[in-house]
Design a protein that fits this description.
alpha+beta, Immunoglobulin-like, five-stranded antiparallel β-sheet
Length: 133
């Protein structure tokens, strides 16, 4: 009976550790740098993500705003897609910026693509981004 209790306790402890690691990793993937917001850049007439068919790249403009708690590096990964539903990736690229204090900083990320991404009527390529710090 004691052996069965020890095995049960061991299994419960292992399950708790695995669940804790999974929750920590999922939370870390979604968290951006504290106090900072990353948004698409660009302006009227200048697409946020523009496809250059000659160089086979997508050039994306992003903006980092807010107040950094100390000196930080913000890394943004942009993925370009062959469809507007963002389900078929054609390339991915990352860019980093060093930030400190109050910031309003542009960041350009270049994405090499294997084939042309979806481009809408405003000449904006289908892209998403993810922020890590």
């Amino acid at each position: 009976m004691t052996r069965r209790v020890a095995i049960t306790v061991g299994v419960v402890l292992v399950a708790a550790v695995v669940a804790g690691i999974a929750l920590h990793r999922n939370g870390a993937d979604d968290a951006g740098p504290t106090g900072l917001t990353v948004t698409w850049g660009g302006s009227e007439g200048h697409p946020t993500c523009a496809y250059d068919d000659q160089q086979e790249i997508v050039r994306c403009q992003l903006t980092i705003d807010g107040t950094a708690s100390g000196s930080q590096t913000v890394t943004v990964t942009v993925t370009a897609y062959a469809d507007e539903n963002t389900s078929r990736p054609v390339g991915s690229g990352s860019g980093s910026a060093h930030v400190e204090g109050t910031v309003h900083q542009a960041l350009v990320v270049t994405v090499p693509v294997r084939r042309a991404p979806h481009v809408d009527e405003d000449q904006v390529a289908a892209c998403t981004f993810e922020v890590t710090s």
